[in-house]
Amino acid sequence: MNRIQSSIVLLLICIGMGVQGQSRMNDYLTTDDGTKLFVKKSGNGPICIFIHGGPGAWSKSFERLKGDGLETNLSMVYYDQRGCGRSQKSASGDYSLERMVKDIDLIRKHYGAAKVYLMAHSFGGILALNYALNHPDRVEGLILANSTLSMRNSLEGQINYINSLLKTDFAVPDSTSGSLMSTFLKAKKALSQKDLGYKMLSDSKTNVDQVDEIDSQNPSDYDFSKHVFSIDDYWQDYTPMTKQVKLPVLIITGEKDHSIGENHYLLFHFINGNVRKINGGHILYYEKNEEFIRSVFDFINGI
């Protein structure tokens, strides 16, 4: 991994991140292309597959930082995407969006569910939306928690926020994704030099330190992160496609989410969408846990 790839892995992680009884089942699901995915099912009620962000993060920090409070009413399935966390790197070298969506469906089949809830955080929104577009008959409801549906829009928002915070003038390029990434990395470096990198996730450095402590245990070599930014499908703006989704959708957004963008959700046009704004940053599941869980349960009870 070269220097630029290493920087991307470290800096973009912030974009970045029904079985009865309280059973906890760790498992490894081998996909049809020979890749082992870490999956864990725990809780009560209908199945909800959690789709983590990054790109290249893992599900453990969400679960450990109070996300498991959802298990009282949901059978949560935590999985690490291929090339992420405790899962293997892709055995076939395939990290396409189509492949990632197929992995989610294999997990659904693995647990024998006709329909599932999908809960996506951050970058995971792109995977969840595309699954819902391709398999609407297999989704009970879609939960987008601090989710982006346009990486370009969210990265541009981050650059603008850094400029406002540091009084800098990093210019947002209007050309290639490579130019955008280069500018973004420079802006993030400047933010880190001021010891303000945590601001992208939360106004509380203590909260971000808790996330970092768990993420320091991540055993991955971040193979997905090494490939994702060179795949055009992940750079597409999926916000116009939200008009095609007829499923119930819960959008949980942070009023101070500088990672995705405080107003990014305004680009969504779901027919059956419900927005819940919470006074917090990018990790609402932890820093505003009670409100976060109540929002999810209200949504599910409504369905």
Short characterization:
With 303 residues, this protein is an alpha/beta fold. The protein has one domain (3-149, 205-302): Rossmann fold (3-Layer(aba) Sandwich), CATH 3.40.50. The chain is 35% helix and 17% strand.
- According to CATH, the homologous superfamily is Alpha/Beta hydrolase fold, catalytic domain
| Total of DSSP H or I helical runs spanning 4+ residues | 10
Mean pLDDT over the full residue set: 92
Strand order of the largest sheet: 1-2-4-3-5-6-7-8
Task: Give a written overview of the molecule.
The protein is globular, with a radius of gyration of 18 Å. It is 35% helix and 17% strand. It has helices at residues 3-11, 60-64, 97-110, 124-134, 151-166, 177-193, 205-215, 223-228, 284-287, 289-302, and strands spanning 24-30, 36-43, 47-51, 75-79, 116-121, 139-145, 249-254, 273-278. The model is unreliable at 2-23 (pLDDT under 50). With 303 residues, it is of the alpha/beta class. The protein starts with a helix and ends with a helix. Strands 1-2-4-3-5-6-7-8 form an eight-stranded mixed β-sheet, with helices on both faces. Helix 3 crosses helix 4. The chain has one domain (3-149, 205-302): Alpha/Beta hydrolase fold, catalytic domain (Rossmann fold, 3-Layer(aba) Sandwich), CATH 3.40.50.1820.
